[in-house]
Queue: 4 jobs
Job 1
Amino acid sequence: MEYQLRKLVTHYRKSLQIKPDNLAIYDKIAELYYEQGELEKALEVCQEALQIQPDLASVPKILNKILQTLGFEGEEITAIQNILQKKLDYESFHLLLSRSETVKTAADAKTWKDAIGLGYDFKEKKQWDEAITAYMKAIEIEPSLSLSYFTLNCIINYCFFPQPNQLERIITFYHQLIQGCLTSPYAYVVLGDMLTAQGKVSEAITAYKTAIYRTIYLSQKITTKYINSPKIDDVSFLIIGMGKAGTSSLYYYLCQHPQILPATDKELHFFNKKFDLGVDWYLAHFPPLPVEGGFLTGEATPWYLGSYEVEKRVFQLFPKIKLIAILRNPVTRAISQYNMHLRSMRENRSLEVAMTSELEILKGMADPTQVIEKYWQTEKGYLWVGLYFYFLEKWMAVFPREQFLILRSEDLYNQTDKTMKQVYNFLEITDYSLSEYPKVNSGSYSKNNDELRKKLSDFFQPHNQKLEDFLGMKFNWE
């Protein structure tokens, strides 16, 4: 049955290559996924159609059926349609979910919405074990949506590191789930991460490859030519920096291009944290590339630029790879990172105290990137990360200049089409425009102290000048 579904979807996708705005075909594909219980895929197809024509009559009809099947009603359906017309943002989606006040534990949850709402509450309170149990309950109730898998993986990888017995419980749960039903491909990514944490690297590789297989063969980008073409394992590009400068948006825009095949995750942290797992583990996160067709793949770990020895490791494995760095006004970037840490409760100092403390340590150092270990005992690196010249100088001592594309974050948001054309030209793929360019993973915060900004700008001015002289380009940061 799965093969027949894939065959029909491939047939309809080929029709879309001839006439990409044929909305009736999107409706047929969404119906196919819906009938087979692939609700997440059906939602994605509806989102594609809504981006072409937001007031489309036929696709919202199947969309309502999908959302009603998932337990949504009334104003919730309208709210989700509005999200789908833009981009399915996980935090926004969470906020739509309200649970009954009587639901206090995962055992009380009768619907996936109640379980996810409970998991979100536990996550906000940093009650990680309870949050994990709640998201596992949501997956058990509704295994076709990737929201629960995605959030569960974020908790385990970035917030909470389970004990061996907890890991084993999650892995056993995933094995039972995968054997029992069709699940989101992202379930295999989470399973791979759990197995990696256990040191079962070969099993993890199998899980990642399964995730890639299940994703790629239901993708609109796949054609018979792709399926039948000889393939190679390779990585075409890396977005190496910088954090809080727009890497999430850039990677999202890139992944919409018909020639870009995404990795299992945007950030893999292989070269700065997981290099000892080996290149086979790394390559398992990417789709194999056909020899023909001009397909590319890559990832975006924005902390590669400033991480120790990463440039040498990348060159060792991929000496011809294309490297993209997107740089933001270092003052604005530092404040953005501070506010991100504040929201996630990784920072409890005021902005002025945090910035002034770091400023006093960095001032007067010939090479401020060569900070001593004691620095990291008190500081978060808000300013240190903005010393772009010193990081790029190290990378360009290893890779030739022509393998780099340096972008201004401000241009990505103010001249998006023009900037993306630069990226496509650098990667040697065709131009491609999106109907809109949503900001991904952006935050908001109040206006900051002008006097502090001036102090930070004065600190960065000579370092920014070195950057401009070194690259031969103007950034015009105040």
Note: The radius of gyration is 23 Å.
Job 2
Amino acid sequence: MRATKSGISWRLSLLFILFLGSSSQNFGGQTQFICTSVPKDMDICAATVQNSVPGEDLKTTVMQLRETVLQQKETIMNQKETIRELTSKLARCESQSGTDAGGRRKEFGSKNTMGDVSRGPADTLAQLSQTLQSLKQRLENLEQYSRSNSTVQANSLKDLLQSKIDDLEKQVLSRVNSIEEGKPGLRNETEQRGRVESTLTSLHHRITDLEKGQRESRPLDKFQLTFPLRTNYMYAKVKKSLPEMYALTVCMWLKSNASPGVGTPFSYAVPGQANELVLIEWGNNPMEILINDKVAKLPFLINDGKWHHICVTWTTRDGVWEAFQDGVMRGSGENLAPYHPIKPHGLLILGQEQDMLGGGFDATQAFVGDLANFHIWDRKLSIGEIYNLATCSSKAQVGNVFSWLETSLDIYGGASKWTFEACRQLN
């Protein structure tokens, strides 16, 4: 058999016709195998239909095959477009999640402060709510346990729970601050932060209530205050004001590893003068004593995470001052607010620096660490008296203006109170 025109392969025509016949069999039609030659310019499918006996069936089969191929092509194109769109969205998500609100690059897939992969504010706050509920339940169990078991075992559980709550508070505040920095205009998140802080304060108060059962056996001066993180709401307030003073000595035990600067162990403000008497170390500045807003730099190095005893003496005559660390004089000077008496009718705050009487707290200047045995005298103590205080001598005295007692303070914002004995720290 030969092709009727040059350049036409009868083998190709035969194979194509056989293929069409086989395909029609798959659709349930009857099959005939036809061998024929096809002119060069003639449509092969048209020729096949014309020469086939069951022409209409074969034509239908060919059209169905064509339609199926076209549909598959269209499906493939749509899938490719979908893949491109999803790839583009994924790239945008990676770009957005890799940069924080301030433009600083974050590691994609990194964990947030709560230990989970970064999620939205609503999810995070919901998780915090669940965690706090769990803590409440554990605290209730602790209270029941302390009533039915020994004091030592109850204290051990209480200490563990307090540590967990302190860690949670740091994580909560860090996460909420991060949320508010990213979306400062969302009032709902600010309200939820307030509720979280209120719940944490309530938990601290309930733990303090657990300590009340121990106070009969513990002296009122054997305690420390702990400020676990920088905030503008965590502080202790001395219940009474200071008298007018022409000389003074301030002593305390401090422990901190905060950097840069331990913050403000105490501040005393009076009407018209927020910086009447302040001890502060913030930023990269050395520790300073302020009297009537006048400044003297102190040679203290205490942010090593260890307990240190510090004292500062001052007299209004010539403004002479002396600074002692761990019972040893480290520095002295003069002309610090000379001939200015410390004014009465003010407010003494532990843990915060006051920009106004009783307020204006700045978290960057807040004290971070532990404070204990805070005493004030209205005279200049001698070197020997200060040494006795630092070495826990039996001759050590207590402040005649302010003496360190639990009943002399009101505590706010979650600052915690723990048993403390200075002499044990020295052994």
Note: The chain has three domains: 1-98, 121-212, 223-426.
Job 3
Amino acid sequence: MNTQQERRCVLYARLSVTKEESVSIARQLQSCRRYAEARGWEVVGEFIDDGVSATANRPEDRNGWAALLGTTDFDAVIIWKVDRLARRVLDFLHADEALQKRGAGLIAVEDPIDMTSPQGRAFAVMLAVFGEMEAEAIRARVRAARAQLLKDGRWAGGGVPYGYQSAPNPDGPGWVLVKDPARQPWLAEVVGKALGGATVNAITTWLTAEGAPLPEGSITRRKSGATAWNRQTVDGILRNPVLAGMTPHNPGRPKSAKRADPFAVFRDEEGEPVVKDSLAVVSVEEFSVLQNLLDARSTPQARKRSEREPTSPFLSRVVRCDDCDVFLCRGTNQKRPVLYCPSCRQTMSRSAFDPYLVDRLLAERGTVPLGGSTVEAHWAAAGKSDEARREILLTQLDSLRLRRGVVGRYFDEDRVLLRWRGASPPAIVSNAEDLSDA
């Protein structure tokens, strides 16, 4: 790389967590500017990733670095130290390769490296190795510190479970978990209902109707402004092992594991769960029963996508709830396909609804011209493709809404409010002839 090429450069800075001993983003950029000024280089851009861990995020996955690579007309990238770019050797090599492809070099202010020579490149790789070793040492220290806190019965930090709060440790430094007197009665009622056979959805509806206080920091609200619970929150509360006085402890859980193992808890040297009776709402045995109930009643939406039973997309975002004015969602009830409202929870079995709708479409709109043919001809050509059938249905629909009705075993067509395109609005009263004779 010659002097002419090195006159245009960009700066890059990264910081995971702001601490007193950390070199701030501003200080990193200031050092990089001074380096560029001392060599007479023109700085054409500055890019940062603040609050981003180099261990958990590859350079190409960071917004700042991605924006840097999207910039043109520079031939050098100045960073403060190698570990600001990457803490894993492989990540560092990939980032350097991306710069090489565009003819740019990497310069570190505090690490005297020259990436234009084989010796400099080898030295840079060695620094990246040391950076990875340092990151692993930090992780080991954090794991050891957390294990010691749990062994001492202290609160290791993180989200405070519902019904509990952190308080100063009466026996020494740090914090401990204690019961929250304002939310404990609600927690006990929730657990009691679940053990008594109530579903998560039923408990969620009850909490919202009763105006139960939400978890600290929660801002879930309805359009009316009233607080509203959701089933994911309730499910998470019921799966937290602190209910049985146990402490969640599953280090190394991958980010892809959205639901933590409720029995991944802190254990003693014999492998038995450490139980703090002062925090327990139920026994360990009752907690196990509760988990079995939850697993047996988990809705398809709560399972991993690979474990869900597929449902037909024929009516996806087609039918609206007449009360709530939101699209009905697809789901299953006792392994039978249904549509349900995410707000008021009304449901409609699709076993009868789908054939009813298809029959009406073909009977009332089958001869309507469509794409040089007719609706009926296009429907026959669509075969069993639910996506193609949905597109045909949408060409004919003006609106399709479902209103609440009497819960029963049989399909009630009076619940269906359907209007075709170009058709006059339906009568408000379905039994108009009976009324006219009155």
Note: Confidence is low (pLDDT under 50) at residues 1-5, 251-258, 300-307, 426-438.
Job 4
Amino acid sequence: MIKKSLAILTAGLLAAQLTPRAYAFNPAEQALQSPAEIMAAAEASDWRQVDSNNLMILTLESGAVYLEVNPLLAPKHVLRLRELAKSGFYKGLSMYRFVEGFVAQGGAGEQETDIAPLQQEFVSHTKQPLALDIKVNDNDGYAPRSGFINGFAVGQNEAGTQTWQLHCMGALGMARGNGVDSATSEFYVVIGHAPRYLDKNITVFGRVLAGMEHLQRLQRPGSKQTPFNPIIDLQFADQLAPEQRPKIRVMRTDSERFQALVAARKSRPEEWFVATPNYIDTCAMAVPSVIDD
């Protein structure tokens, strides 16, 4: 049984179109409130339930890490993780690589496997523009524009026909060798400052919703622990019995409430702030999540 608790994740934890809300308010007026006040006023329609098909649970010795995968932008990589998880491939392997402030990586490491390499999905190409739920920035140095789709921080070309997930803290990606189509099964999670220079160089296909602290507690290189950072299991929620499936809500990034939250994070209307640049880096804009008992 997976232990479930109630928690609202803040900026340290970073991220389908739903029916529009039946009521509306003015986000510009809400920006005069603090982020905490906006969150306190959130209603049920401001949230979406994470699909159990897309909820991945990485169980480590210290606890569970909950991640949401992103089939919209990287369906082949999501399918690969689903198939491997269902087969029990990761059970008993380890988080064998840990780089302080950068990445935690898990899988078979240097062990020989017969897993076929995947075709890269660095960027999703669409004939029609893929609409952002909200645009946060124009040209941040790495993307002509960036914002959110379905709770995931993304970058786009100016036409909106090329979309990729950003290497924000908490991003889930698939490690590869020198060949662009060489990824097989080794996954990683960004655990520090966003390494945006990796954008469009590696396939990113999900993000941490909760449990980042368990990745931060991993043994560092040189530890005498045996086995080293074992993976107890890696599963998808729909592979569990219904009563064991975690129930996690994510704030809808297409909601006016999230729009107001972005505006408040940019302007910081709280009395404490002296400098208010009216700007926020897209990776620094946390998408709130709630784990329900």
Note: The chain has five helices and 16 strands.
